[in-house]
Amino acid sequence: MRIQASSGRSRTGRRAASRHASRLCALVVGAIVGAVFVSPEATAHESDQFTLPLNKPFADLGGYLDTVHCRAIEEAVTELNRKIERALEISDPLDRARELERLHRPVQLVSEVYNRFNDAFFEVQNIEFAARSDWAKAMYGDDIRAYRTVNWIYTYTHFPLDPRRLVLFWQSSTIKAYGVYFGTDKLSHFHHMGRIYWETWAHLREEGMSEEEAVVEIVRRYSDGGPIGENGMLGYVPTGVYSNGDLVANYTGYKFFRNLLEPVVLKGEERPPMVVRVGPFYQINTHVRPESGFFGWFVSDHWNEALNPSKFEPSVRWSTRLMLEKRADRIVEFYTVVDGRPAEPSYYERLASDLSTYYGEAYGYWGDDVMTIANTCLPELEPMRVAELARLGEERRQMRFAEGDPIIASLGMRVEGPEDRAWPEAGLPATPVCPLMRLSPNGSGSGASGVPANTLEAP
Question: Are 243 and 185 within 8 A, CB to CB?
């Protein structure tokens, strides 16, 4: 009888566990579907800045991003000025004034710039394609333009039948721009969630919220306070990953859209608006030029998910920690020897602390027990190996200083400067493919994207 009772409890327990597993599976599947369909403005891609190659340098795509964003703003200003010009021809003074007032609202320019980029999912695919195109190879040679590997840190994070593995199928490559390594998904977050942040902020301001209250609310709503927040369907629920890097990309994207027409504080410094009014028309400001480094003000080590690590759901954390410990040597070697940083735990502890805010501004960081290079990777190395990497890293830093590529060692941030490579004058097709924007080769604003090199204004 005792055996039978035990067997009955076991069958009952198995049925209860099965029902619980079914409900959990349904919840996760629902979250995945929600992540795709509830917010078509954003995606749940993930990237890996821990697993990077040691044998070949990355090309710096900063000049490319400058050019793309300069061109997007230029196209938007041209189109809006065309509408303003037509409005000035309206004969009725009241109708003319109403139309000009409408066209001068910030949302008009924000929308024109935003519409130059593809939807959230395909924008990531666009930059992946652009980095691997013949145009990029002609531009950057054999340097790595985008890198991803099948054996990344999330390869073994979920049970094989866990539907969350479907979301992680869309891995974003790592690229380098302005000396910062980050996933291509950050650009989609920057444009699409940045626009959502801006729209919400503008609406809250119209409702009477103060500037400070509105900023606090958008940070709360899209980090831990809403269905499409990072703690909801854009991160933690469908993947088990709460990406602090994604949140900074969202936040700096919001600043980008505000910076179109007003000064904003970036990296602790006030930056002038990117577009100014000249009479009834708009004009791009003088600092917004291809390959000028202007877009680098929006990019920082906050976007790097190895230096600004994510918060993981417990099962994801366990498997990810095993991967980081196993790869500790190559991770430390990359960031010391290749990237020229110190091999000191205190440096990475201080850096992780600094990156928990955006230069003192809250962005929704969650990281009470995140796994950093300091507390997870460096303890796995023998002291002699750490000393060797420290020596090699110091040699690398000295070389970079001599080449005019300084690192602010206290924060690990780069100082923007001229790009190492200029646009080539020969050897490219007349219209090289540059598919991050929704632009046709003739600049009409539709169809396949293109940035004719021979039409770009010199910085």
Answer: no
